[in-house]
Amino acid sequence: MDTQKLEEIAPGAWRIPREGAMRVPGIVYGTRELVEAMDDKVHEQMCNVAALPGIVRASYAMPDAHWGYGFPIGGVAAFDANEGVVSAGGVGFDISCGVRCLITGLESAEIRKRAAALAELLFATIPAGVGSRGQLRLSDREMDDMLRGGARWAIEHGYGDARDLERIEERGCMSGAGPECVSEHAKARQREEVGTLGSGNHYLEVQNVAEVFDEHLASSFGLRAKEAVVSIHCGSRGLGHQIGTDYLRQMVVAAREHGIDLPDRELACAPIKSAIAQDYLRAMRAAINCALANRQIITHLVRQAFDEVFPKTELPLLYDVSHNTCKVEDHHLNGRPCKLFVHRKGATRAFGPDHPAIPGALRGVGQPVLIGGTMGTASYILCGTEEGMRLAFGSACHGAGRAMSRHQALRQWRGSEIVQRLADQGVLIRSRSMRGVAEEAPGAYKDVSAVVAAADRAGLARTVARLEPIICVKG
Question: Are 35 and 6 in contact (CB under 8 A)?
Fold first, then answer.
């Protein structure tokens, strides 16, 4: 992206001035280097999003932004509850993809002594990969109950502890879900995929807390240097993808019927109060519950595996937060409280201190923000800030962001070579697909440390701790 066409309005914040059909400006967060490394398509897509009816304040891009389907990945846009639109492209296909972090309380040095055994057990226990199947096969009624109940449903069926719910976004169950708005094809795709990681950039990692940047926040989160945590990154699997596909097709027609001039067909949307938008929201909320149930079941399996290698290790939940959603949220606009439909696509909710959506034990400090990195570099835990609530509706980056396509990565790396190189560095990779490992090579991504530093510098969130992988299970 050409920074000469942008206005630097604050350290690490750049404005795309309004022009043409844009209703609001665009705002990109990142250092000059990160912004200039962004594809020009990000600029184009931000301007297109800024032209949608009812958008308020700005079209945003996080420091890890890259171009996606309609909306940029790393994009945030909020819409007026009366005049705005809902866009399936503004949520993406992997609805409610997110990260969950568990505290082990174990010294990383102890984990490393038995890392090989733990890696093999986790790999054997956690279904992963393209078309992976879980231990459950849901009936029609069970499927609908899961789509309504989310992590609560999973816990009621013996997967985890009710104490987990306090540390899950929406307390484990997204209200307003409508299984009846989910196609039978979408449900069929999910029937045997509940409790599975999937493929692509999804993973389960055992990580060392390599560095603490804020001792007070880290202590509040239960994090200690040189201890291990477990991170789970996955979403709503085939069900979410099918919901995105189903409703994008319908929204292309709906936009035309409602007189919305789309600058890009991939921005298909519908007025919030329209029937198709309301159906999509109910289906999307069902997919959120699917993702929450998915991560809850995987958590249960992880705890079982740990108990075999490290008996009586409880693995309490730090937090679970999604980064592909549209939520109705209370914010302030021009000094007045209002309800907005906030789309975050490849952007993590990052609410500041005292927000009622944050668990009571964490409310005084702010929401944990879980940032996934790559299997060969690092991940981060951040904390939401009051400033971030004003800057981008309480949003932050979600990962490193791709620097090259999967096809480019395949031409450059071989999976087996990456596995060996990382093993030499003390990182154990377990995957059923060497092609998948090559596609997710660390070099295919931006520098996650630079992305996180940019988010911190801009005030979107505050850096708490850096995590380095010990074991990584991938599809």
Answer: yes
User: What's the angle, vertex CA 413, arms to CA 407 and CA 414, rounded to 5?
Assistant: 110
Domains of the chain: 3-403+445-474 (3.90.1860.10)
CB 398 within 8 A of CB 346: yes
Given 343, 355, 398, 407, the catalytic residue: 398
- 63-114 pLDDT, tens digit per residue, is 999 999 999 999 999 999 999 999 999 999 999 999 999 999 999 999 999 9
**CA dist 102 to 221, 300, 316, 318, Å?**
11, 11, 6, 5
Q: CA 137 to CA 194: how far, in whole Å?
A: 8
- Please write the tens of the pLDDT for every residue from 282-301: 999 999 999 999 999 999 99
The pTM score is 0.96
What is the rounded end-to-end Cα distance, in angstroms, of the chain? 33
Establish whether 343 is a catalytic residue. Answer: no
Q: Which residue reads 């027609």 in tokens?
A: 253
The three-state secondary structure class of 42 is helix
Q: What phi and psi, each to the nearest 5 degrees, are found at residue 195? A: 85, 30
Report which of 452, 404, 397, 449 is spatially closest to residue 37, judged by C-alpha positions: 404
**Beta pairing class for 336-345 and 317-322:** unpaired
Burial class (CB in 10 A: 0-12, 13-18, 19+), 22: buried
